[in-house]
Write a structure and sequence with these properties.
The structure holds 2 protein chains of 2 kinds. The two termini of chain A are about 30 Å apart. Chain A is globular and about 85 Å long. In chain A, helix 1 runs antiparallel to helix 14 and helix 13 runs antiparallel to helix 14. Chain A is mostly helical. Chain A is about 75% helix and about 0% strand. By secondary structure, chain B is an alpha+beta fold. Chain B has 19 helices and 17 strands. In chain B, the strands form 3 sheets. In chain B, strands 1, 8, 9, 10, 11, 12, 13, 14, 15, 16 and 17 form an 11-stranded mixed sheet that branches. A 4-stranded antiparallel sheet of chain B has the order 4-5-7-6. In chain B, strands 2-3 form a two-stranded antiparallel sheet. The two termini of chain B are about 50 Å apart. The chains are: A mainly alpha, B alpha+beta. The interface between A and B is large, with 62 and 61 residues.
């Protein structure tokens, strides 16, 4: 009797994704929708304001579909989304997709620069801490990391603005660009650094960088704290392995042992850590965006939630969900590059 | 990794290159930092928020305006003259000749008629300001009509005080739009509403270049404007939610005006010789609403006692200095009939005596819904402390603005602390909301502030309705003053303060006009 043929691993993996991804989105939408309807905020208020007479209030309530049962409201919304219509934001009067196309690039720009800072600072610090375990340098690095967990981002942002912008003048102020540079680079991606580079507008690029570097450094510091701690932990585990001892005995330089071999293996779990850290930043950091007047996804979702503007909240939730799922997939792909055993 | 590190380093160097010019604002551009996340539309028939009103007030004009220094003096904007017929219902406006919209189209009576009609037909939040005169979608073309290019005739359903009607026309909803341009952008019978949310079709000294929600808006000077040409070529208003950030921007010279500095920031910049502060009274008043459904708060002696337990002067000096002044009547200063009496001061003995008379000598427990925002939380805490001296245990329930408002509108509160701004410059706007409650039932259609606090006042409602019909201005003024005196004694409103709007600006930048309402905050005269 022949054994039943098993589907190839890749096909099984794709089939799993085809089921889990839609289910994940559905779960996200249901939970967010229910929370949005349960919070004690009247969504009609955001649309009509506090002064509207009763007939305007009633009319808009019907227009927004709020007179229908909850499950009917959700069903209508889900069908709309499947047709690519995320509805219209009450607060901005725009289609939610238009709003997200405007705010997400701002968050992407900030999160990407912050993650680069976090990785370029956190990984070497984590390696240095692991290599000098127990010594004063290890303690200093761990304190830096602890501060990153403990200091409120809002406070750090204001102090950073006061010091680096107001007193030292090293960076530009809040916002994405100075007034004089607005609209000089055509908006192709919405990420001003990229658009300026594509258009060859290097003064705009420099100005945009001066604006993004401080909020990105603030957020990057928190990423750095997390990444350095995890790197230290993974490196300590690798440095205890037999292959490291073998490599040293064979006469390889310590630099090669640490950076090529140990870090190379620590990269496998580190990729997941970095991906998660990046995904967290891509949700939008409302406090940083508030301090730095950065018109990103965090502010958008937060102000929508506080006004019960559920189309905008749900649209933002879908984007955040897509980001997490996308980055998870990306980190799976990166595993294959980093770890030949997974190919 | 190495390439990335190099790029980042290059960027860091670029960021700190001294060659990058300091970011002072361009000479021909005024830059303001303001919290403008309340804007939902730039359509005058729809906008009803402070920030939107300010932008629209610089882009659109109305038939009639008023002298900003003396509100009782009406003056023509797009209308040159106006009369009211003997029936008290028929108003005739003669349009100014030779005025053009930003598109170049001439301003005519047809545009005025279309603008008012579309506001009635759309019936968005501010629509009631016009529909309260009996205009409906069915009768608007008959009641609001252009007889010829220069003559507009408007017939209200009933005779009211003419000033009441005129002041309603001065509201943002009375903004006159370019009918040809708007009609060209109509979609599915929306009167161009979707297009006008983010575009403009006005005749004012500025046009709207762009509005990005929660980012900012930009206005550009109209060189062919019929009146005095605006001095700044552009005005950029950026949404900067954090007042501390606004202060830093102003100190660095990256903005010309910071519009939301709190008392702490104003104190901090006092010694800064390069910054000045401009102030102007606004119509918003801060008050406590005492829900009459609460049996303790329903006792007249308790209501009066609570009014004697607020330390008005202490709060004004220590929390609100420069931003609010003590004011205890429902009509703000500057309105016809405004009352400047301040009969209440902190008087613990008197309050205790009143509470004892109410059978509550040891006080009672009560809650107050408080928005999580400055200075509301600070004021609430101060009130909590002073009420405690008379044995009143005040529990503060913090919440987001819309959350507390939702509870207030549902009459589920004990005490609400909040503000109210007038909808137009006529006393009826506040009299109607504070002193009128034609139907106190839960299903009432008219949900004034008096209704929200379950204050059943059939007699006072009649007096308020009579005052809006009084055609003699002097008699009308006296009626409102009498109404306010009675209101101060008996109402469940502890009216405490009137707002002063503050704008901190760079010295050397001048000419920003701050009028009595937000649509009178005018940019055209700002010079640098």
């Amino acid at each position: 009797m022949t054994r039943p043929r098993r589907w190839p691993r890749r096909v099984r993996s794709l089939a799993g994704l085809a089921v889990s991804v839609p289910l994940t989105f559905l779960g996200l939408l249901v939970v967010t929708f229910v929370i949005g309807r349960v919070v004690p905020i009247d969504p009609v208020l955001a649309a009509v304001g506090d002064r509207a007479p009763a007939e305007v209030y009633d009319r808009v309530r019907v227009e927004l579909g709020l007179d229908r049962p909850l499950h009917e409201q959700f069903r209508r919304y889900a069908v709309q989304v499947l047709h690519g219509d995320f509805g219209r934001s009450i607060l901005t009067a725009n289609p939610v997709l238009v709003d997200i196309r405007r705010v997400f690039p701002a968050t992407l720009e900030l999160a990407t620069v912050a993650t680069l800072i976090g990785v370029l600072g956190g990984v070497p610090l984590g390696v240095a801490a692991a290599v000098s375990r127990g010594r004063w340098s290890d303690q200093v690095i761990r304190v830096i990391g602890l501060a990153g967990y403990s200091v409120p981002v809002f406070w750090l942002g204001l102090v950073g603005l006061l010091l680096f912008y107001a007193r030292l003048g090293w960076v530009a102020g809040p916002g994405r660009l100075d007034v004089g540079f607005e609209d000089l680079a055509p908006a192709v991606t919405g990420v001003i650094l990229v658009d300026a580079a594509l258009a060859g507008e290097w003064e705009v690029f420099a100005n945009a960088f001066r604006h993004v570097i401080l909020p990105a450094a603030i957020l990057g510091y928190f990423s750095l704290a997390y990444i350095s701690r995890m790197t230290r932990s993974f490196m300590l585990a690798e440095l205890r392995q037999e292959y490291v001892t073998t490599a040293r005995v064979k006469g390889l330089s310590e630099r090669r042992v640490v950076w090529r071999h140990a870090l190379g293996n620590a990269l496998v779990p580190l990729v997941t850590v970095i991906a998660l850290s990046y995904a967290n930043l891509l949700e939008g950091s409302v406090l940083t965006e508030t301090v730095f007047a950065w018109p990103g996804l965090g502010q958008y979702i937060t102000s929508s939630l506080l006004s019960a503007d559920m189309n905008a909240v749900l649209g933002g939730t879908i984007v955040v969900g897509a980001v997490f799922i996308g980055l998870n997939l990306l980190s799976d792909l990166l595993y294959r590059l980093v770890d030949p055993r997974t190919r | 990794m190495r390439t990335l590190a190099t790029l980042l380093l290059a960027g860091l160097v670029a960021a700190t290159i001294p060659g990058q010019a300091p970011a002072a604002t361009p000479k021909d551009t005024v830059v303001m930092a303001k919290q403008i996340d309340d804007i939902i539309s730039m359509d005058p028939a729809e906008s009803f928020e402070f920030s939107g009103s300010e932008a629209i007030g610089n882009v659109y004009e109305r038939l009639i305006g008023y002298d900003l220094k003396n509100v009782s003096q009406l003056k023509g904007e797009l209308a040159e003259t106006w009369t009211v017929g003997a029936d008290g219902r028929t108003y005739t406006f003669k349009m100014r000749k030779g005025i053009r919209f930003h598109s170049g189209n001439p301003v005519t009576a047809q545009d005025a008629a279309y603008s008012l009609q579309r506001a009635v037909a759309l019936n968005k939040s501010p629509g009631f300001i016009l529909t309260q005169f009996g205009f409906t979608k069915e009768n608007m073309k008959e009641r609001i009509r252009a007889v010829d290019d220069q003559t507009l005739v408007v017939e209200t359903a009933e005779a009211v005080a003419p000033t009441f009607f005129y002041y309603c026309l001065t509201a943002v909803v009375g903004g006159i739009v370019d009918s040809k341009t708007v009609q060209a952008h109509e979609k599915a019978g929306d009167y161009g509403n979707e297009w006008l949310k983010t575009n403009s079709a006005g005749s004012g000294p500025f046009r709207l270049v762009s509005w990005k929600a929660n980012e900012g808006y930009t206005l550009e000077r109209v060189d062919g404007y019929w009146g005095p040409k605006a001095l700044p070529r552009r005005v950029v208003v950026r949404h900067v939610p954090e007042p501390a950030t606004q202060r830093l921007l102003l100190e660095k010279g990256d903005i010309d005006y910071a519009r939301n500095l709190t008392k702490d920031q104003l104190d901090a910049i006092k010694g800064n010789a390069s910054i000045a502060v401009q102030q102007a009274p606004k119509g918003s008043i801060l008050y406590l609403g005492l829900n009459q459904k609460n049996p303790n708060l329903a006792k007249p002696e308790v209501r009066e006692a609570l009014k004697y337990l607020v330390d008005y002067t202490g709060i004004e000096q220590n929390i609100l200095r420069g931003q609010y002044v003590v004011h205890q009547a429902f009509l703000p200063r500057g309105f016809l009939g405004a009352l400047e009496d301040t009969p209440y001061k902190f008087d613990l003995e008197r309050a205790r005596a009143l509470l004892a008379k109410a059978g509550l000598p040891n006080g009672f427990s009560v809650t107050m819904d408080v928005r999580n925002t400055s200075p509301i939380t600070d004021i609430a805490q101060a009130i909590q402390a002073s009420w405690a001296k008379a044995g009143i245990k005040l529990e503060l329930i913090p919440g987001d603005g819309k959350q507390t408002l939702t509870k207030y509108r549902a009459r589920n509160h004990d005490i609400y602390i909040g503000g109210w701004g007038p909808d137009y410059q006529d006393p009826h706007t506040n009299a109607e909301t504070f002193a009128m409650n034609p139907d106190n039932s839960d299903g009432a259609r008219s949900k004034t502030l008096a209704w929200r606090n379950s204050w059943d006042i059939p007699e006072m409602s009649k007096q308020t309705a009579a005052a809006v019909r009084e055609r003699d201005a002097k008699k009308r003024e006296a009626m409102y003053q009498q109404l306010q005196r009675e209101h101060q004694k008996t109402s469940p409103f502890v009216i405490m303060f009137q707002q002063i709007e503050v704008a901190a600006h760079a010295r050397g930048v001048d000419g920003f006009v701050m009028g009595p309402s937000f649509d009178n905050n005018l940019y055209a005269g700002i010079k640098k």
